[in-house]
Amino acid sequence: MNKTSIPSIDSISRQWYLVDAENQTLGRLATEVASVLRGKNKPNFTPHLDNGDFVVVVNAEKILVTGKKAEQKLYRRHSGRPGGMKVENFSSLQGRLPERIVEKAIKGMLPHNALGRQLFRKLKVYKGSEHPHAAQNPQILRVNSSSTSS
Q1: How confident is the prediction along the chain (150 residues), in pLDDT tens digits per residue?
Q2: Are 119 and 49 in contact (CB under 8 A)?
Q3: Are 133 and 124 in contact (CB under 8 A)?
Q4: Which of 21, 126, 132, 149 has the highest count of CB atoms within 10 angstroms of its CB?
């Protein structure tokens, strides 16, 4: 009988990856980043453990969406007070807080439990090309984005 090996917490090695979001499609980028955050790119992937890597996303303001999503895609948030619903479309949120668009897309692809919250803390998203994680020597992660619209 084959036994399943579960890696110990001490044996998990974490890498840092740098992703450039310039001219990338939002959903395609988010699936790749969520996969790396979960550790699905490693041979010792375990669904209930955090054996993923750190990901730094830069140029979040240059992310693309296809079709009419720039005008029609809505982002909602609620303050918790009566009448506290705020609705904003993609293009206005991209002008105001472009990091939130990428964070929300990736967070929706992670598990919706304590493990997902732990994985989300390993994601760093920045508006421009500058980031404070140069000391970690992040490796460049290529995201294959074959855009259907030209």
Answers
A1: 888 788 888 888 999 999 999 999 999 999 999 999 999 999 889 999 999 999 999 999 999 999 999 999 999 999 999 999 999 999 999 999 999 999 999 999 999 999 999 999 999 999 999 999 999 999 999 988 655 554
A2: no
A3: yes
A4: 21
